[in-house]
Design a protein that fits this description.
Helix content: 25-40%
CATH architecture: Alpha-Beta Complex
Number of strands: 14
Structural class: alpha/beta
Largest sheet: 7 strands, mixed
Distance between the termini: 16 Å
Order of helices and strands: EHEEHEHEHHEEHEHEEEEHEEH
Number of domains: 1
């Protein structure tokens, strides 16, 4: 399995700090977010990794020039303009095509078990398998729901054919930013333009009945998207509530 880290964004909610430093380089314990992300993938034996970059990308390239490339194979996609979550994945198609691959966001800390996710993905011949967690604020974040077999039955306002509310798990879920894809996913992402995976790709896959499955994560999960959440995450690491990953 290969991997991809999404690291192109502006980090608008963290301005003015992100005007000087891209969010993937924000420190976390003794490391930073991009190195933790690479370390997470190598923890699961993934050494072929694509990374898309745009905002302040020269700083990310400099960071990746030492202590990384001798341990993993990196395929860097420099976006001249932001291509969106699905567009970013499409930009790495030449590197990822032909294999199953995991995609993670660089601004999230978690201990999601990729081995368990992969078993679900392969046993169901899924196009995509999404790691979900309990949704603390359905009104703000939007709701995802799986049926009793773990198949994604509802993605926000889109439901699968034959959807019945009584046939889905009662707890409302949210996406964690971690997914495993089969190479078939590229058939559903338009080329040459910005594409958001949550508005253009997942809804179409769900409403046409494509096999998307879910993994329920109950462990640690946090993002660093705001000054408050970044401060909370740094405290969690300092108090050993979360152990960062080292590149192996």
């Amino acid at each position: 399995m290969k991997g991809m880290i999404l690291a192109a964004g502006y980090g608008i909610r963290l301005r003015p700090e992100t005007d000087r430093l891209p969010k993937p380089l924000f420190s976390i314990g003794t490391t930073n977010m991009i190195r933790n992300s690479i370390g997470y993938l190598t923890h699961y034996g993934i050494k072929d990794i694509a990374i898309n970059i745009h905002h302040l990308r020269h700083l990310i390239l400099k960071e990746l020039s030492w202590g990384v490339r001798d341990k993993v194979t990196l395929h860097i996609v420099e976006e001249e303009e932001i291509m969106g979550t699905a567009g970013g994945i499409k930009g790495a198609e030449s590197f990822l095509a032909g294999s199953t691959f995991a995609v993670i966001n660089s601004d999230i800390l978690h201990d999601i078990n990729l081995d368990e996710m992969l078993k679900i993905h392969e046993s169901n011949s899924a196009v995509a398998t999404l790691a979900l967690r309990d949704n603390p604020n359905p009104g703000k974040i939007g709701t995802l729901a799986a049926d009793t077999n773990g198949r994604l039955a509802r993605f926000l306002d889109t439901t699968m054919p034959g959807y019945k509310a009584g046939n889905v798990e009662p707890k409302q879920k949210m996406f964690t930013g971690v997914a495993i894809f089969s190479a078939e996913i590229f058939d559903y992402i338009p080329a040459g333009r910005r594409v958001d995976i949550s508005t253009e790709v997942y809804p179409k896959l769900v409403e046409t009945g494509k096999p998307i499955y879910t993994y329920n994560h109950t462990g640690y999960w946090a993002d660093i998207g705001t000054p408050k959440t970044y401060s909370d995450v740094r405290m969690d690491v300092a108090l050993s509530r979360f152990k960062t990953y080292s590149i192996k």
